[in-house]
Amino acid sequence: MNSTVEISDIEEAARRIDGVAIQTPLVELPLDARVPVCAKCENLQVVGAFKIRGAFNFIAQLAEEKRRHGVVTYSSGNHAQAVALAARLVGVPAVVVMPTTASRIKVEGAQALGAEVIFEGTTSADRRVRAEAEASVRSLQIVPPFDHPWIIAGQGTVGLEILRDCPDVARVFVPIGGGGLISGIAVALKQRRPDVLVIGVEPKGAAKMQASLDCGRPVSLEHVSSIADGLLPVRPGDLNFDYTRRLVDEVITVSDEAIARAVLWLFQRAKLVVEASGAATLAAVLDNEERWCRVGGGPTVVVLSGGNISLDTLVAMNDKASGYPQEPGTESEGTGRY
User: N or C: which end of the chain has fewer CB within 10 A?
Assistant: First the structure.
């Protein structure tokens, strides 16, 4: 298997996932901006997040002997739900290893899709070790959450859709967890429109990609903490780091307070339900409106990567405007939730 992802791989992935993932809308946001700011609404995607793109692209390419016993993955929620759905669609069992601190809405989502849920530890390392053990004992195929060319190609279909719906796009903001989404989008954009700026966004409490770029290699953070539970891996994927280093123009960080304000802004002003991880991109724009909303050139696109947020969390954010709470268990030493 070639570890290089080309635009042709993303185009093939788009054909493969057609009829499974939906082509989500691009919606202009009601901002007082010199150029349009549009949201790529992956919060409206099947199972509420972009993850179905990569998960189905991966599982659909597995040979029958590889997947006949079932698949297993490790995730804090959105990838778990995507793997559960993709496995059900191809008719194989799915096992998902989730942290003991996983949010209830994501656990119940995976279970409703027929996955067997196993709880293990609080860190991504804990979950990966358990998933590898289950794979060995039960002859299951591991579906990685982000560091694989088939996953990257699937996520890159978001980039193709942005170019189709907004051919004059000037800049695209993408949230960074493990780096699969920004890798795929960057490949799609830079190979079709190398002038488009690709800007990654991380929580300040989990800026593993920026730390890795500063060191010139992937590094693991000793501690991560953020309300954006889908952006908390402690380390970027190796492939994802390489694509980010070569193709991404800038990586910026945002505070939890800014993310929470963006979640509420989207709900109140745009009538969009978006989880904290998905709202990080808009947080970056709202945090520096002078830079991003007053610039010239073509439209800005912010990728809203997911919408799996509980009503309780949304209400709590609204009630505590200056001290936004976290999803249960999202702050933990060494937590790498994805």
Answer: N
